[in-house]
């Protein structure tokens, strides 16, 4: 059974990166015991086939251009990544304000000042950026900068 469980884990890992927590959850119904599962996950980690750090880097690289720090951190913590690893990964990416400006420009383009001054349009843009996980301070700075253009 140990060999079959390991092969299943390797097939799962062949598709994409997983965290220890995710892989454990997927394999738990197939394992004979929690100890067997823990040993397999430890072995995969030791042989560098499973890495939370690699998963975090991959996830951040693929999603940071569209999402704010809060949403990225929430997604990673939900997958079982440690807070320290999340903070280190977020510190290594481009700052949130630059990413938020790029997201805003892609979505709304260069609008005239009057459009952003309109309360309804401004609220819509705030909701959009907030839904992407950008902080209130970052949103305020993006809209203030674009309003001053």
Automatic annotation (TrEMBL):
Q: What is its main location?
A: cytoplasm
- Annotated RecX third three-helical domain residues: 94-143
Protein's cellular compartments: Cytoplasm
Domain of life of the organism in this record? Bacteria
One Gene Ontology BP term is: regulation of DNA repair
For this UniProt record, the keywords arranged alphabetically read as follows:
Cytoplasm
Q: Name one GO cellular component term.
A: cytoplasm
Q: Where is the RecX second three-helical domain?
A: 51-90
Q: To which protein family does this belong?
A: Belongs to the RecX family.
Please give the function described in this protein's UniProt entry: Modulates RecA activity.
Q: What is this protein called?
A: Regulatory protein RecX
Q: Which organism is it from?
A: Candidatus Accumulibacter proximus
